[in-house]
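Protein SirB1 N-terminal domain-containing protein structure dump, as promised
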Amino acid sequence: MSGLDSGAAERRRQFAEEARSERPDLALLCLLLGAEAGPVGPAEVVPVTPGEPVPDPYGIDAAQIELDRLAGLLPYGSRSPAGWASALAELLGERCGFGGSSADYQRLDSSLLQQVLRRRRGLPILLSVVWIEVARRAGAPVYGVALPGHFVVGFGDREHPVLADPFAGGAPLTGQDAELLVTGATGAALEPSMMVPARPLEIVLRILNNIRAWAAARPERTDVALWAVELSLLLPSHPARLRYEHAQLLVQRGEFLRGAAEMEEYAEILAEIEPTTAENIRRKAHAARALLN
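structure tokens r here:
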């Protein structure tokens, strides 16, 4: 992760520290992730006196303020889980226009919380993060539900949740609706384990996986693939194979020595359990070093 400027290095440090905290802040992690894509555009920054630095170039503080503002727009008073779902749908889906469409899957900013708050469009999981963070600030019993292929939110009793689909503007989901979503995505039946509330770090890793998939379909965007992998490696729990993916990206970007060294380190990890794979990786490391000649 060399080559980072001091500001980027500090954001990475903050991301790693938050990810390892006792109660990771989902919004902050998503916003630090979003900052990796670069500063927000000129239309989104707060105007300042000429010559003064922009106070919030990555939109982190502004996004937190917007989440607070949206939470403050919810009607005050206790309500049932169904009442919370209905209130969030009316505010975020109808009044504010948060939702998604198939076109949003083609955009990187659909996975960046700052941009989702600005555009009010995004992937199901990022729209769900907006719902979770707004509802949580208002005191709702809310959580994410990581259905295969389509993230939604739940309210109330986790054994019998009230489900809503933020991607569809907050449309209510019955158990049968959830079953159809899962069957359509996987061909398999809905399992009880799929309804377990998603933890913040699981949500963040799934967002990063989506970004890696977006970049993989665009070979010219190894820059995005690299930061997505590097953030994934900062999470306390991540697939070991990401280390090899990171090494491959370094080689693709011309950092042959670093990439080869990481391949060799990964091969050592695999040597006892998958010796054939380890040897293949060592050969690739040797080939990467040869590219310097």
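The beta strands are 142-147, 150-155, 162-165, 171-173, 197-198.
lmk if u need the other ones
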